[in-house]
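Run log, item B.
One chain of 293 residues. Sequence copied directly from the ordering sheet:
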Amino acid sequence: MASVVPKPPWLRVKAPQRQRIGAVADLLLDLQLNTVCQEASCPNIGECFAGGTATFLIMGPGCTRACPYCDIDFDKSVRALDPSEPERLGEAVARLGLRHVVITSVNRDDLVDGGAGHFVACVNAVRQRSNETTIELLIPDFCGNWDALEAVMEAAPEVLNHNIETVPSLYRKARPQASYSRSLELLQRVHQGWPRTYTKSGLMVGLGETDAQVMEVLADLRRHWVDIVTIGQYLSPGPKHLPVERFVSPEQFDAYRHHGEHGLGFLQVVSSPLTRSSYHAGEVQGLMRQNPR
């Protein structure tokens, strides 16, 4: 049953500029590209599309995992990858004039490399069309296939993002096919093997965790050398998904940010009710200039 906890006033989203949204939506339709903004029902879609940007979702739209918090469709069938997708994505980045692009994917556990080679092809296509664009990859765990991770990292994305999503005690409920320790290991491997890449992770709150558990996750991420963290409020997509157990106040989100940046030493903690993994992701360019590697 969906949550009956009423939404608080701080979760209201401003009305977007319809004309700019239509232009981005038309371009995506023209190039037959998916975005996580649309497939995962992101509450910031209006703001991002109005700002002329989007988070591209490759190898989808169906996902081979059925995480009960996520609105992306479940599809466990074996599906061939579209070899033209990287070229179309590169064209979209060029036409939108993006200075920073976020590329993510559904989980493709049906593929031997989890789709790592397709990520590399997308990075190469973006660089061919827009070589000054910085690239952020938001990747799955590849089921612990570290050869696949190495292939992705050899493409040299400026930012490697992999979401921890929630606290360890909620993994069985929220991420039954994932592993908390495996996700931490992935992030640490990126730091150790490719220290010039900025590492990033994100989690959602409101699934039943405590604030103390959130602070423990932040400490774990920092111990594994993560640079940037995003924290946002979980919003249940519908009655078939996990319900919202609580709405975290803006003041508590500020407390997460302050502890992460000033107590633990993250380069940046983006923490607010409407924060999502790629929300205002382009701000990382300023961080990179201030903290060069």
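Observations after the first pass:
- The first helix runs from residue 18 to 31.
- The chain has one domain: 9-290.
Flagged for discussion on Thursday.
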